[in-house]
Amino acid sequence: MQLSIKKIFFRSLLISFVLLFYFWTATGGYNYFDFKSDHNNRYNDLAQSFLAGKLHLLYKPRPELLSLSNPYDPSINGAYRVHDASLYKEKYYLYFGPTPVLTTYIPYRLIMQHGMHDNLAIFIFSIGALIWAILLLFYLKKKYFNKIPEWIMLLTIAVIAFANATPILMRRPQIYEVAISSGLFFLMGAIYFFITAFSKEEPSKSRLFFGSFFLGLAVGGRPQIALCCILFPIIWFKLCKVSNKKWGSTLIAILASLLPFMLCLIGLLLYNYFRFDSIFEFGTKYQLAGKPMTVVKLFDPARIPISLYLNVFQPPFLNLFFPFAHLKSSIPSYIVNPPYYDYGQIAGAIPGIPFVILLFLLPIVLILQKVFNKKYLSEKKSFPYYEFLLLLIPAVLNISILLFMPGTVMRYTADYATFLILLAAIAWFYIYSNSAYASTSKLFFNTIAVLFSSICNVIYRIAFCIESKEHKKTERLSKPNLSKSLTFNDLGTASEKTHFVPGKLFFNTIAVFFSIYSIFFGIAFSIESPEATLRGQNTPVYNEVIAWFKPILFLDHGNWDLIRERISPSSFTVTCTNIFSPQYDINNIIDGRLDTDWAPIGSKPVFVTVTPANPSTIKSLWLLSRSTHLFETWEKLVAILYIGNKPISVQTFEFPNAYKHRIQNAKFQPVLADKIELIFHNPVTRNQKGKELDPTKLYPGSPADFCPGYTEIAIEWQ
Q1: What is the mean pLDDT of the segment spanning 552-569?
Q2: Using omega within 30 degrees of 0 as the cis cutoff, is the peptide bond preceding 167 cis?
Q3: How many helices (H) and strands (E) does the chain have?
Q4: Which of 13, 327, 5, 358 is nearest to 161 (CA)?
Q5: Is it the case that residue 489 has pLDDT exceeding 50?
Q6: End-to-end CA distance of the chain
Q7: How far is Cα 210 from Cα 206, in angstroms, rounded to an integer?
């Protein structure tokens, strides 16, 4: 069936926008596509080693490292080690799999005669994984869900593209992100080939072959994918079921589905043996990392509670500070942090990608439909059990492995996010296809109407706490137990007295709502990537993006723009006792920019000295606090004013509401001074809802890691 011009246009428009967003993300700031220069990174080093006929890296460990009593001890090897390289028999190896080198870095080097940048590799693998997912989505639609309207398909593609965490990988292109993206690309390709091999009456042996080969390559990128070998019995069962007693052909198909994977696996095991004298050693035992890997267990059941919370249930937090959705780096007090366990800013799979909730709503909706209104179900459509299992198993395995690992970071989400989204899409498509409905256009209209009313209700009730007749009307529309006065003839009901049954309309409303939130979260997380933010990479572009949201951002920092406009420009300098890092220099608070902060080390009292160009009388001091997961600032300020190095006035200010109001104002008693010493006390440890937080839980490590500070200060002089 030929596609209409309208479908081609909207699909092309969406794909073009996704590609532009991926390109913009992959080339932000210092991450640009450079096809002329050589790039010295670990995978390029390994490519040069392979081309030289070696399995180890060509550069040698420093003699100082080898002379240490324990070269694997991170407390003494920091000045000499190559971080995250594996040291074995006085040679450096990479514990990362060789697949990216064999498939991209070596071919690129042979063609271009120089190394390949990691961001290009991640871009290629991420685009490729997205293509596999989109192709699989359209295959499922054609085979099982041919009545799915185009707008649902486009919305689902957008969720996959923006919420699958690959833009986070592109924001910080390093060897870790290359490994993840390559594993995702080849595993997604393997699943696509294994599923589409049964698109015709006779299973395609060539697709089974490529599926097996891609699965083997995926293991070479991410070794834990080897557990996906449990897919083979499912594939073989499917083969036997459709074989029609053609056992010879079935046996050939089984071999085609297994041999390429086995050859890749044997090659990888031999690669391990020739490097570390063990087929099961990938090099993690000899890794030179920030923790002693010789004593740290790679898998430990004690990590399950914290890993489960972080990877599945950790919620993001929302505020009016761009990009509005933020990742957390804290855990609840009731969760124990095991020894040597590291975690960063992260959002769990369920709250971070709300679209996957549809997967859990599927059985609930089906039960409600059967219990309350059997006539509501149309003729039952077949459920894609085979396809569902081939997507479910990699997702479950990847999440399960993370539960035992010695750390959790947001980039690991890319290992399983695409599979969860596709599973949720199947749930949505199945509900839609198994529900009686008269008009697709009416469905779309009602979905948008109910979605709009739901959003209005949330805004009225939560944001502004408005209680009015209009609000009550909106509330009626947004609740599932709709008023009896509403008719839903489009649902197949003929009487005005019929109650609303949770079905297609309600499920589509929820699906659209979760889709929009998933896309929004995905874009926000990629902009504020936990290890490489857009603000840090490309400040001018970050400021341009902020300018688009200025009306909303105005609410975040109150009347700060008006404050700056009201205050006459003046010349003064600032110094402080310490800074957390050069990125948080004290001069950031007077540079007029809202994308730079000052933060000292730790949360102890800190001193800031303000020196005007000429003796002046200070009238008022305005303070704009840092904003992360809370307003990181202080609740007490002591100001000492000097003339000729002699203190002439001491003034104290309390800011009890600093935890919920980002702007604070200290009004001075007029005193002429040529130097002002500001001493900040009592850091804020409450979030904007007033909940007390444990500083040791805000960041991994000690309370000294808690760093309040300011984004800007403004001084009014008389």
Answers
A1: 64
A2: no
A3: 26, 16
A4: 13
A5: no
A6: 77
A7: 6
Given the DSSP bridges, would you call strands 646-654 and 606-612 parallel, antiparallel or unpaired? unpaired
Indicate the residue type of 578: N
Choice between 331 and 698, residue whose per-residue pLDDT is larger: 331
* Widest CA span in the chain: 101
The rounded radius of gyration (Å) of the Cα atoms in the chain is 29
Query: pLDDT digit string (tens) for 316-339?
Result: 988 767 788 888 877 887 888 888
Contact assessment for residue 123 and residue 104, using Cβ atoms and an 8 Å cutoff: no
DSSP category for residue 287: B
In this structure, what token pair is assigned to residue 320?
A: 């009016």
Structure tokens at 203: 């299973």
- Please count the other Cβ atoms lying within 10 Å of the Cβ belonging to residue 301: 10
Q: Closest by alpha carbon to 74, among 276, 280, 292, 256?
A: 292
DSSP per residue, 129-151: HHHHHHHHHHHHHHHT-TT--HH
* Residues 6+ away with beta carbon under 8 Å from 249: 202, 243
Q: Are 35 and 57 in contact (CB under 8 A)?
A: no
This prediction's pTM: 0.77
Interatomic CA distance for residues 347 and 414, integer angstroms: 12
**Contact present, 322 and 546 (Cβ < 8 Å):** yes
Amino acid at 153: M
Angstrom distance (rounded) from CA 525 to CA 316: 10
Three-state SS for 450? helix
Judge contact between 699 and 330, C-beta under 8 A.
yes
- Based on the number of CB atoms within 10 Å of its own CB, is 296 exposed (0-12), middle (13-18) or buried (19 or more)? middle
Q: Say which residues have a Cβ less than 8 Å from residue 146's Cβ, sequence separation at least 6.
A: none
- Alpha-carbon distances, residue 561 vs 95, 361, 551 (angstroms): 51, 45, 11
Interior CA angle at 667 toward 664 and 673, to 5°?
120
CA angle 78, 80, 82 (to 5 degrees): 85
SS3 state at 575: strand
* Residue 351 and residue 310 in contact, taking contact as beta carbons nearer than 8 Å: no
φ and ψ at 403, to 5 degrees?
Answer: -65, -25
Percentage above 90 pLDDT, the chain: 50
Average pLDDT over residues 450-470: 40
DSSP β-ladder status, 631-632 and 616-627: antiparallel
For residue 118, the one-letter residue type is D
The residues with which 342 forms a beta bridge, in sequence order, are: 407
648 and 342 in contact (C-beta within 8 Å)? no
For residue 598, give the DSSP letter: B
The pLDDT value recorded for residue 373 is 54
Token pair for 414: 């890319």
263-319 tens-digit pLDDT: 999 999 999 999 999 999 999 889 998 888 878 888 889 999 999 999 999 999 887
Give tens-digit pLDDT for 338-372.
Answer: 888 888 889 999 999 999 999 998 888 777 766 66
Contact 87, 64 (CB under 8 A): no
Question: Between helices 417-433 and 357-372, what is the axis angle to 10°?
Answer: 20
Q: Vertex 382, ends 507 and 438: CA angle to 5°?
A: 45
Q: Count of CB atoms within 10 A of residue 77's CB? A: 22
Q: Residue 551 has what pLDDT?
A: 60
Report the DSSP beta bridge partners of residue 612: 572
CA 319 to chain centre: 17
